Amino acid sequence: MSTLNTAVHQMRASYAFMERNANLVRRYWSWEIVWLCYSIANALSVAYIGLGTEALTGASAVDGRYMVLYLIVGTLVWHYLSVIFYWITDVISIERWEGTIEYTLMAPIHRLTHMAGQTLFAVLYSMLFNTVILIVAVLLFDIDLSRANLAGGAAVLLAGSLSFIGVGIMASVLPLLFPERGSQMTHVIIALMLLVSGVYYPITVLPPLLQRLAVLSPATYVLTGVRAALLEGASLRQLWPSMWPVLLMGLVAIPAGLKVFNLAERYAKRTGKLHRNG
């Protein structure tokens, strides 16, 4: 009975972190509208590159509509994954800004409980944003998704979420250990993944060294799988080669990330790095 009570307590604690983040979004709703408008404008700007390339090179040389869909899918996948990454890595920055970091990290809850609430909110938040962007893109570009395997694409996205959660937990150590510049350091990680993952171009155009690095990026497999599902209507069985690598990465990265975070947390407590800035 005590085990059940403990599990219920941890689940409620995870939900509390989700509710806290939802309240933060509600409090800064004007910023969320600005961010949504920016995200839509950014996705559309990238998509128009497809039509622009067709206009510059000639309709016979480039299928502008296919390029638009190719770029839109890449933009949406990357936006989804990067939002999850940033919500997790910003967990320390948010706590510092709100002045609650000492209370949160000293609270009698498992760190897994804390991160579970943070990551579940990140996934839901990112899905909501991406849905809005996709609806706008479909209406504006008259995109035909009748042959797309939307369920398969969603399955690949969810599988890829696990690996990005693990990477995000590891990266969240930087703001914990470096209060003044740790958040900025996480941008380097996401920028390198953007470069090698083939968000806006196939990885075959990259130099051999970067192509080898692309194999290590979970975003590479997610992009390949989602594009196969949406552009070619690939079945779940056909998508499996893109799903199992990110599932494996997630199974390794999440426990490793929690272990690294626990070590960094203990060090931060010993050295007095748990203070508010901003």
Task: Considering the chains and any ligands shown, give keywords for the structure.
globular, 278 residues, 12 helices
Task: Write structural notes for this entry.
- This protein has 278 residues and is mainly α.
- The protein has one domain (20-271).
- The chain is 81% helix and 0% strand.
- It contains 12 helices and no strands.
- The protein has helices at residues 2-27, 29-57, 64-89, 91-98, 101-106, 111-141, 150-171, 173-177, 182-196, 208-214, 218-231, 236-271.
- Helix 1 (2-27) crosses helix 6, helix 3 packs parallel to helix 7 and helix 11 (218-231) runs antiparallel to helix 12.
- It is globular and about 65 Å long.
Count structural domains. Answer: 1
Largest sheet: none
**Global structural class:** mainly alpha
Distance between the termini: 44 Å
Number of strands: 0
> What percent strand?
under 5%
- Specify the overall morphology: globular
Please count the helical segments.
Answer: 12
Q: Report the uncertain regions.
A: none
Mean pLDDT: 84
**H-E string:** HHHHHHHHHHHH
Radius of gyration: 20 Å
Fraction in helix: over 70%
